[in-house]
Amino acid sequence: MKAFVMNGIGRVGFADKPIPTPGPNDAIVKTTRALICTSDAHTVHGAIGPRENLTLGHEAVGIVHEIGSNVTHFKRGDRVVVGAITPDWGDPASQAGYSSQSGAALGGWKFANIKDGTFAEYFHVNDADANMALIPSGISDDAAVYCCDMMSTGFKAAENGAIPIGGTVAVFALGSGR
Question: Which overall architecture, per CATH, does domain 2-160 show?
Protein backbone atom coordinates (compact mmCIF):
# COMPACT_ATOMS: atom_id res chain seq x y z
CA MET A 1 0.00 0.00 0.00
CA LYS A 2 1.04 3.62 -0.45
CA ALA A 3 1.60 5.81 2.60
CA PHE A 4 2.60 9.45 3.08
CA VAL A 5 5.49 9.42 5.54
CA MET A 6 7.89 11.60 7.47
CA ASN A 7 11.50 10.82 6.60
CA GLY A 8 13.19 13.07 9.12
CA ILE A 9 12.61 16.60 10.28
CA GLY A 10 11.37 18.68 7.37
CA ARG A 11 11.29 15.74 4.93
CA VAL A 12 8.24 13.86 3.68
CA GLY A 13 7.43 11.54 0.80
CA PHE A 14 5.52 8.47 -0.27
CA ALA A 15 6.50 4.95 0.71
CA ASP A 16 5.32 1.42 0.01
CA LYS A 17 4.35 -0.39 3.19
CA PRO A 18 2.54 -3.66 3.90
CA ILE A 19 -1.14 -3.54 4.86
CA PRO A 20 -1.17 -3.75 8.67
CA THR A 21 -2.61 -6.78 10.46
CA PRO A 22 -4.93 -6.48 13.46
CA GLY A 23 -4.34 -7.84 16.92
CA PRO A 24 -7.29 -9.54 18.66
CA ASN A 25 -8.85 -6.22 19.79
CA ASP A 26 -7.95 -4.19 16.73
CA ALA A 27 -9.20 -3.34 13.24
CA ILE A 28 -7.74 -2.38 9.89
CA VAL A 29 -9.59 0.43 8.11
CA LYS A 30 -9.42 1.28 4.40
CA THR A 31 -9.14 5.06 4.27
CA THR A 32 -11.86 6.90 2.34
CA ARG A 33 -11.29 10.46 3.61
CA ALA A 34 -8.56 12.10 5.66
CA LEU A 35 -7.79 15.64 6.80
CA ILE A 36 -4.49 17.33 7.51
CA CYS A 37 -4.09 18.97 10.90
CA THR A 38 -1.78 21.71 12.07
CA SER A 39 -0.13 19.14 14.33
CA ASP A 40 0.89 17.16 11.22
CA ALA A 41 2.83 20.23 10.06
CA HIS A 42 4.30 20.70 13.56
CA THR A 43 5.34 17.03 13.58
CA VAL A 44 7.12 17.37 10.22
CA HIS A 45 8.89 20.47 11.51
CA GLY A 46 10.24 18.57 14.55
CA ALA A 47 7.78 19.26 17.38
CA ILE A 48 7.96 15.65 18.64
CA GLY A 49 11.47 14.93 17.44
CA PRO A 50 12.78 13.08 14.42
CA ARG A 51 10.76 10.26 12.91
CA GLU A 52 11.84 7.95 10.09
CA ASN A 53 9.34 6.28 7.75
CA LEU A 54 6.45 7.24 10.06
CA THR A 55 3.08 7.45 8.29
CA LEU A 56 1.53 10.83 9.05
CA GLY A 57 -2.09 11.74 9.81
CA HIS A 58 -4.60 11.21 12.61
CA GLU A 59 -7.94 12.36 11.15
CA ALA A 60 -9.58 9.74 8.90
CA VAL A 61 -12.71 7.75 8.20
CA GLY A 62 -13.07 4.61 6.17
CA ILE A 63 -14.41 1.12 5.69
CA VAL A 64 -13.55 -1.74 8.03
CA HIS A 65 -11.26 -4.04 6.07
CA GLU A 66 -10.41 -6.58 8.77
CA ILE A 67 -11.16 -7.11 12.47
CA GLY A 68 -9.45 -8.95 15.28
CA SER A 69 -11.02 -12.02 16.88
CA ASN A 70 -12.23 -10.11 19.99
CA VAL A 71 -13.89 -7.19 18.15
CA THR A 72 -17.67 -7.44 18.64
CA HIS A 73 -19.20 -4.08 17.61
CA PHE A 74 -17.99 -3.94 14.00
CA LYS A 75 -17.82 -6.11 10.91
CA ARG A 76 -16.04 -6.00 7.60
CA GLY A 77 -17.59 -3.33 5.34
CA ASP A 78 -18.81 -1.01 8.12
CA ARG A 79 -18.23 2.71 7.53
CA VAL A 80 -16.44 4.12 10.60
CA VAL A 81 -15.04 7.28 12.08
CA VAL A 82 -11.89 6.93 14.17
CA GLY A 83 -10.89 9.43 16.83
CA ALA A 84 -7.55 11.21 16.61
CA ILE A 85 -6.86 10.05 20.18
CA THR A 86 -6.99 6.25 20.39
CA PRO A 87 -6.18 5.31 23.97
CA ASP A 88 -5.91 1.92 25.54
CA TRP A 89 -9.16 2.18 27.48
CA GLY A 90 -8.10 -0.29 30.17
CA ASP A 91 -5.16 1.94 31.16
CA PRO A 92 -5.50 3.57 34.62
CA ALA A 93 -5.21 7.10 33.15
CA SER A 94 -8.03 6.36 30.71
CA GLN A 95 -10.17 4.87 33.48
CA ALA A 96 -9.59 8.03 35.54
CA GLY A 97 -10.85 10.25 32.71
CA TYR A 98 -7.51 11.20 31.17
CA SER A 99 -7.62 9.16 27.98
CA SER A 100 -5.11 11.36 26.14
CA GLN A 101 -2.55 10.35 28.78
CA SER A 102 -3.11 6.60 28.32
CA GLY A 103 0.17 4.82 29.10
CA ALA A 104 2.28 8.00 29.30
CA ALA A 105 2.17 11.73 28.68
CA LEU A 106 0.33 12.08 25.35
CA GLY A 107 0.17 8.27 25.20
CA GLY A 108 -3.38 8.30 23.87
CA TRP A 109 -2.17 10.18 20.79
CA LYS A 110 -0.80 7.23 18.87
CA PHE A 111 -1.34 8.02 15.15
CA ALA A 112 1.73 9.74 13.64
CA ASN A 113 3.33 9.92 17.06
CA ILE A 114 4.18 6.44 18.32
CA LYS A 115 2.66 4.40 15.46
CA ASP A 116 1.85 4.82 11.78
CA GLY A 117 -0.94 7.29 11.12
CA THR A 118 -3.86 7.49 8.74
CA PHE A 119 -2.35 8.98 5.55
CA ALA A 120 -2.23 5.56 3.92
CA GLU A 121 -4.51 3.29 1.97
CA TYR A 122 -5.14 1.30 5.17
CA PHE A 123 -4.50 2.05 8.83
CA HIS A 124 -4.49 0.11 12.11
CA VAL A 125 -6.89 0.97 14.96
CA ASN A 126 -6.10 -0.32 18.44
CA ASP A 127 -8.95 -1.15 20.85
CA ALA A 128 -11.38 -0.93 17.92
CA ASP A 129 -14.62 -1.44 19.85
CA ALA A 130 -13.87 1.70 21.88
CA ASN A 131 -11.97 3.83 19.33
CA MET A 132 -14.31 3.60 16.33
CA ALA A 133 -17.92 4.62 15.73
CA LEU A 134 -20.31 3.72 12.93
CA ILE A 135 -21.09 6.49 10.47
CA PRO A 136 -24.89 6.81 10.03
CA SER A 137 -26.09 6.14 6.48
CA GLY A 138 -27.26 9.74 5.98
CA ILE A 139 -23.83 11.21 6.77
CA SER A 140 -21.19 11.48 4.04
CA ASP A 141 -17.56 10.60 4.65
CA ASP A 142 -16.76 14.22 3.76
CA ALA A 143 -18.82 15.39 6.74
CA ALA A 144 -17.95 12.55 9.14
CA VAL A 145 -14.20 13.13 8.91
CA TYR A 146 -14.61 16.40 10.83
CA CYS A 147 -15.65 14.37 13.90
CA CYS A 148 -12.20 12.76 14.19
CA ASP A 149 -10.47 15.73 15.77
CA MET A 150 -12.00 19.12 15.07
CA MET A 151 -15.43 18.56 16.61
CA SER A 152 -14.23 16.24 19.36
CA THR A 153 -11.56 18.74 20.44
CA GLY A 154 -14.16 21.50 20.68
CA PHE A 155 -16.56 19.32 22.65
CA LYS A 156 -13.80 18.24 25.04
CA ALA A 157 -12.81 21.87 25.59
CA ALA A 158 -16.44 22.73 26.36
CA GLU A 159 -16.66 19.81 28.79
CA ASN A 160 -13.41 20.84 30.50
CA GLY A 161 -14.71 24.41 30.76
CA ALA A 162 -18.06 23.21 32.18
CA ILE A 163 -19.91 24.99 29.35
CA PRO A 164 -23.45 23.61 29.15
CA ILE A 165 -25.19 22.72 25.87
CA GLY A 166 -26.56 26.03 24.57
CA GLY A 167 -24.21 28.02 26.81
CA THR A 168 -22.59 31.25 25.68
CA VAL A 169 -18.85 31.85 25.57
CA ALA A 170 -16.47 34.53 24.36
CA VAL A 171 -13.16 33.51 22.81
CA PHE A 172 -10.25 35.92 22.99
CA ALA A 173 -7.16 34.87 21.09
CA LEU A 174 -3.98 36.19 19.59
CA GLY A 175 -2.59 35.10 16.26
CA SER A 176 0.74 33.36 15.98
CA GLY A 177 2.39 36.59 14.86
CA ARG A 178 3.64 34.99 11.69
Answer: Alpha-Beta Complex (3.90)
